[in-house]
Prior knowledge:
Layout: H1 2-27, H2 32-48, H3 68-78, E1 94-98, E2 102-107, E3 113-122, E4 128-132, E5 138-145, E6 151-153, E7 160-166, E8 169-177, E9 183-190, E10 196-204, E11 216-225, H4 231-236, E12 238-244, E13 248-251, E14 257-272, E15 275-294, E16 305-315, E17 323-332, H5 335-339, H6 354-372, H7 377-419, H8 424-438, H9 446-465, E18 487-493, E19 497-500, H10 502-518, H11 520-524, H12 534-548, H13 554-578, H14 581-593, H15 600-620
Antiparallel strand pairs: 1-2, 2-3, 3-4, 5-6, 5-11, 7-8, 8-9, 9-10, 10-17, 11-16, 12-13, 12-14, 14-15, 15-16, 15-17, 18-19
Helix pairs in contact: 2-3, 6-7, 6-9, 7-8, 7-9, 7-13, 7-14, 10-12, 10-13
Amino acid sequence: MEEKQFDAKSIIGYVLLIAIAIWFFYVNKPTEEELAAEKAKQEQVEATKNVAQVAPVIEAAPKAAVDSLGKVAAYKQLGSFGYSQTLASANGGETILENEVLRLKINNKGGYISEAKLKKYNTYDSLPVYIIKDGKNASLGLTFNTRDNRVLDTKELFFEPSLTKVGEDQQLAMRLKVSSTQYLEYVYTLKPNEYMLDFAVRSNGLEQVLDTSREINLNWELEALRHAKSNSFENRYTRLYYEYEEGRDNDLGVGDFKEKEVEDVSYVAFKQHFFSSILLTNTHFEKAKLTSKNLIEDEDLDTLKLKKFTLKTPLVASSGNLNYNMNWYYGPTDYNVLNSYDKNLDEVVDLGWGIFGTLNKYVFMPLFNFLDGFLPAGIAIILMTILVRLAMSPINFKQYLSQAKMKVLRPEITEVNEKYKDNAMKKQQETMAIYSKAGVNPMAGCIPALLQMPVFYALFSFFPTAIQLRQKAFMWVDDLSSYDIIADLPFKIPFYGDHISLLPIIASIAMFFNVQLTSSQAMQQTQQPGMPNMKFMMYLSPVFLLFFYNNFSSGLSLYYSVSYIITIGIMLVIKNFILDEDKIHAEIEKNKKKPKKKSKFKERLQQAMQEAEKQQKTKKK
C-alpha cells in the first residue's frame, strides 16, 4: 500500500518538474531579434568560407527594418552594417547646420551634404544661390569591402546623427553603426560666419569588419548649377581645379570631357564661376582620379546645369581604421575670402598666368578694391581705367613718336622701293642704311605696343572674374558681371546672340577710331607681299570685338569703351600739341650728318647681306 502511494507521489513530482522546466524555457526563450542576429552571424561565417567570390555593390538601400523580418533582411544584405538599419535614423530625416552666411542640410541616408545654400547671394533671376539643391546634383560616398566579402557604398546606407555645441561651433557626428561602439562616421563642424567647415572621416572598432587589404574609395560628385544670365559665359569659367605636390596647382580646362589622374593631392575644387565647392585634406590623397564633363550641348535647351565633376580617391587605413581630417568650403569664388584661409585657394580664381596674374594680384585688384570701397562699381571702373591709361601715356607717346619719324622718312623709303623693286636684297640694305643714318629704329613702334599687352590681357582676366561686379548696376546696365541689354532680338545670330548690348557697340566704334589713329602711319606704307592687309585688320578687329563681347561681362566692355576713348584723346593731344613734325624732320637731318659708329653686330649683319648679294649676282650669271 505504501509502495503504491510512493509511486504515485513520484509521478506527481516528475510531472511538476517537467511543468516547471517547460515554463522556464518558455519564459527564457530567445527573442526574434536574437534569433535574427544569430542567423546573420551564421551566414557571415558561411560567407567567409568562400573569399574568392566578390559580392556586388549595393545600389539601393533596404527599407528601414521596422519588424523582425526587416531586420533579418538587413543583416542578410548588409552583414554587420545591418545594425544601422535597425535604428530609428533608418527611417530618414535630415539635420540642419546654419550660420550667418551658410545653410547646410545633411541627410541620414548617406550622411553627406544634400543641400548647401549661400544666404547672402541670389541668382540672376533673384532666387537663392544653391551650390547643392535637394540632394539631386551632388553626392559623397565611401565604397569598401568587408571581411564577410561584401562591397558596400555608404551613400546608400543610413547614418545616425548627433548634433552638439562646442563653444560657438556646431558639431554634427553622422555615424554608420555596426554596434553601439563600432561605427564609421563623418564629423561636420561649422563655425560662426564661415564658409569653411571642418570635416573628418573616421572609423572606430572596425578592424575586424573592414577589409583594409582592398581600397576604400572616397567618391565625390557634383553637377554645377547655373546661377548667371548667360549659361555659356558662366560655363566658360566653370572648371575643376586641384593642388598637388606641395603647392602646385592646375585645372582640367573647359573641354567637353576631361580626365586626369594626379598624385599627392591636397585639395580639389569644383568651381562654378562665382561659387565653389572645395574639399581640402590635411592627409594628402596619395592618388586621385578627376573628371570634368560638359553638360551643355545646346545652349537653348541645356539651361539648368553646366558641368559634372567627379573625384575618386582611395583612403588609407591606419591600424585597421580611417582617420582623415579635412575641410569643406561652400562659398563665393572671391579672391579676398579664399586668400584669407592661407591654403593657396586663391589660385581657384582665374586671374591669368605668369605676369598677367601678378599684375592682377598686386596692382589691379588692390587698386579696384580701394576704389570700390567708396565709389559705385561703374564709377570705380571708369576711374581705374583713367589711371591705367594715364600711366601708359608715356608708352603711347613713344609709339606715336616712332610713327611720326617713319612718316618723315617715307619719301626716301618710297624712292628706294621704286629704285630697287627688282632686287629685294639691295632694297633691304638701302632701307636699313636710311634708318641707320636718320637714327630711327623701325621696331620702336612695336615695342610700346608689346609693353601694353600684359596690361591688356591682365585686365581681360580680371573683370570677368571679379565677384565685386556681380549684380552691381550702372546706368542702363543691371549687372556689370554679365552682358547689358538694350534690345531683344526675335531670332538668334550665330556667334552674336539673341540680344543687342550697347557697351560692345561703343567699345567697337572707339576701337575703330583708335586703331585708325595709331595705325595710320603703318597703313600708309606700301603693302608688302605676304604681309597681312592692315586696312582689313583695322576693320576686322572692331567687328570681332562687337561679336565676341556681346555675351561677355559688361564691366570689361565698359573698361574697353573708356580705355579706347581716353587713348584717342591722349593721341590727339600728343599729335596736335606735343609733337612737331618739322622739329622731328630737322632732328633726323641732323642725325644724318653725324658720323655713325657701327656696332659689331651691324657690321656682321651688313657683311652677311653683302655676301648674300654677291652670291645672288653669281647665280644670275
